[in-house]
Amino acid sequence: MLTVCVLAAACLMAGFSPAGLMADEPATADHFSGEQAFGYLKALCDLGPRPSGSVGMQKQRGMIVRHFEGLGATVSRQPFQIRDRRSGETVAMENLIVSFHPDRSDRVMLAAHYDTRPFPDRDPVNPSGIFIGANDGASGVALLMELGKFMGSLPGKIGVDFVLFDAEEYVVDRRDPYFLGSIHFARRYASKPPKHRYLCGVLLDMVGDENLLLPQEYHSISWPDTRPIVDGIWQAASEVGAREFVPRPGPTVDDDHVPLRTIGRIPTCDIIDFDYPHWHTTQDTPEHCSGKSLETVGRVMLHWLRGVSRGGSEP
Questions:
Q1: Residue 102: CB partners within 8 Å, gap ≥ 6?
Q2: Within a 10 A sphere around the Cβ of 252, how many other Cβ atoms?
Q3: Where are the alpha helices (DSSP H) in 115-241?
Q4: What average pLDDT does the segment 263-281 reach?
């Protein structure tokens, strides 16, 4: 991720089913469970590091596909590969597209990255140690895993895709490129347009901080086509009493929403709490995340989506 002053990335098992986290567990009509979402976050982190091309990533991918298929979603895989700049070896990568109501041609995208950074390079003690990526990697995925329980009953004529990007931060050297998954997705969407169209997109990145505070990412309020999306989401937050959504400008963050908008021409905003002291360190663990924070963001997104699907908050 590139901020105004910093180059960085913050942020976009087969047979594995942790006790109490079955995909077919019924969701109440109006209650997004932060406890369940936090359980998913911990289950993802229990797999260990999940950088692109790793065994941990393969196990995570299996868990995610199994979960969403259990909810009745259609899961499409978008494979691609890169050549590692250090070893010269080919690394297989894969975006996941989780579709609810695939027959609906007008769609909304909710996105997150599901890879973790190879090393905790900002750790002051052990920058080559183990990086778990609880907030920066697992939080957006866990939120979508819980949110998916409500998508089958979404009213109206708008469909929803959850898009999980690989290789958002397959970065070891400062010269390595970011956002490989979202760039690949955006290029494919632009060069080979599908039958459906995305009315808008929302990127969920680092949304599990135990001290959650969500100002409005500056790109997202500066672009004229994404400002209405931000206004609609923060209005939804006000309506459900989510004070963590603060209606003031936040930092400028380069994230997966940038290639989605600039290459794919999909108006996409970023919901991100970039003020996270454990970012890219060994301390980005579940202990520093919160089910309450996940529930706050999940309730807002569910309320906003229902409004959009009923035509009350057109993106």
A1: 74, 159
A2: 15
A3: 139-147, 180-191, 218-222, 227-240
A4: 97
Does 282 map to a domain? yes
Residue 62 identity: G
What is the extent of the structural domain holding 164?
11-20+31-309
Q: Does a structural domain hold residue 5?
A: no
pLDDT tens-place string over residues 178-188: 999 999 999 99
Instruction: Summarize the chain as % helix, strand, coil (round to 5).
Output: 35, 20, 45
In a domain, 2, yes or no: no
- Does this model's pTM top 0.70? yes
Cα separation, 48 vs 151, in Å, equals 29
Cβ contact 313:236 at 8 Å = yes
Please name the helix (run of DSSP H) or strand (run of DSSP E) that holds residue 64, with its range, or none: helix 55-70
* pLDDT of res. 8: 32
Residue 110, domain CATH: 3.40.630.10
233 three-class SS: helix
Q: How do residues 20-77 score in pLDDT, each as one tens digit?
A: 333 334 344 468 999 999 999 999 999 999 999 999 999 999 999 999 999 999 999 9
| Residue carrying the six token digits 């997705």 | 185
Total number of domains constituting the chain: 1
Residue 314 in any domain: the answer is: no
Residue 121 and residue 290: Cα distance in Å, rounded? 24
The larger pLDDT score, comparing residue 293 to residue 155, is at 293
Helix pair angle (291-309, 227-240), 10° resolution? 120
- Give strand pairing partners of 209: 289
Element (H, E) at 93: strand 90-100
